[in-house]
Amino acid sequence: MFSVNQPIALPAEQPPQLIVVIDTEEEFDWGAGPDRSKTSVSAMQHIDRVQNIFDQYGIVPCYVVDYPVVSQAQGVALLRQYHSEGRCEIGAHLHPWVTPPYDEEVSAFNSYAGNLPAELERKKLQAMVDKITEVFAKRPTIYKAGRYGLGSNSSAIMEQLGFEVDVSVCPPVDYRADGGPDYSRAHAQPFWFGSDNGLLELPVTGAFVGWAGALQRPLYNMAGKLQKFKAKGILSRLSAVDRLMLSPEGFSSQEHIKLTEYLLKRGVRTFTWSFHSTSVKPGMAPYVKTEQDLAEFLDSFRRYFDYFFTQLKGEATTPSLLKQKLESYR
Fold first, then answer.
1. How far is CA 49 from its chain centroid?
2. Cβ-contact 7, 191 below 8 angstroms
3. Which of 2, 1, 59 is CA-nearest to residue 191?
4. Would the pTM count as exceeding 0.85?
5. Fewer C-beta neighbours within 10 Å, C or N terminus of the chain?
6. Please, are residues 282 and 290 in contact by the beta-carbon 8 Å criterion?
7. 17-205+246-325 carries CATH number 3.20.20.370
8. Domain residue limits, the chain
9. Which SUPFAM superfamilies does this entry report, sorted A to Z (predicted)?
10. Do 210 and 237 form a contact (C-beta atoms < 8 A)?
11. What angle do CA 145, 103, 77 make, to 5 degrees?
12. C-alpha angle with apex 240: 236 to 245, nearest 5 degrees?
């Protein structure tokens, strides 16, 4: 199991730092199991819908691309332009079931790359590195495991392949139900890891929020077993505990601000705005089904960025630049 280390202490005077990470991937049925035949990337023709917002706010996002995206012209046409113009960073995103070599059985358990035999996990990530280097003429140094699926061999493989930053850890979610990792006790702050602590983890921004304190996690888990009584909703209305993520997918602008202020009070200074590329085209992901959904989805970007840069006086950065900054605090 991938281990979470002690957080990096940032100075209190450090302005909040915002990175944007896009899980840039193929289109598939989220309600079905992994399927090797699902490799369409038609949504990538519309990725300018979010890139134009990033440009407006001076944000350089990080597109972590998977094999179906990087191996098809339709998937990379706009990204190559953005990358060549310095308007984005490119990282690797490993969906094992659609990444060669195809040596494993397709299953929910094997959809988490960290569950694969170490050599197969390495070969698949090597295939990603090779393809990204070929297409973008630059070796990727940023990694995000598909389904947040880090395992006990993942850090050593990242080191072998020259990665410097990982953005896979997803607090406070527990994915053990179908074989994934448990991040329910993880924190949202960056930390060093690897054999010589040379790798940087920038977790997804998420947390249990509420007045329940140490009881947040057990209360939330108990509520999950009482779904027919809508226990999670009751706990949320009581402000006892909410499980919130800094994502425009499934969370409101009010929740984004609530989460941010909760974490700021607890010393968190780095924040990751994350979502899936498929959400830029209605009907490709469960969060954006209609044109109205799309308009609300995009408006939530602007509302949060206005809040972060105006009210909080925060700064936009990238995984690579943030690593340089955090190294200066060692």
1. 19
2. yes
3. 2
4. yes
5. C
6. yes
7. yes
8. 17-205+246-325, 207-245
9. Glycoside hydrolase/deacetylase
10. no
11. 50
12. 60
- 45-64 exposure pattern, b = at least 16 Cβ within 10 A, e = fewer: ebbebbbebbbeeebbbbbb
The neighbour count for residue 65, using CB atoms within 10 Å, is 30
The half-sphere exposure of 119 on its side-chain side, counting CA atoms within 13 A, is: 1
Distance between CA 190 and CA 231 in Å, rounded?
32
Q: Which two tokens stand for residue 179?
A: 């074989």
The 3-state DSSP class for residue 18 equals: strand
Cα-flanking dihedrals φ and ψ of residue 184, to 5°?
-65, -20
E-only strand ranges, the chain: 17-24, 62-65, 89-94, 142-145, 165-166, 191-193, 199-201, 206-209, 242-245, 270-276, 315-316
> Measured on CA atoms in the order 240, 250, 143, 325, is the torsion positive or negative?
negative
- Report the alpha-carbon distance of residue 316 to residue 15 in Å, rounded: 10
Residue 319: partners with Cβ closer than 8 Å, 6 or more residues away: 19, 21, 62, 89, 91, 142, 165, 167, 200, 202
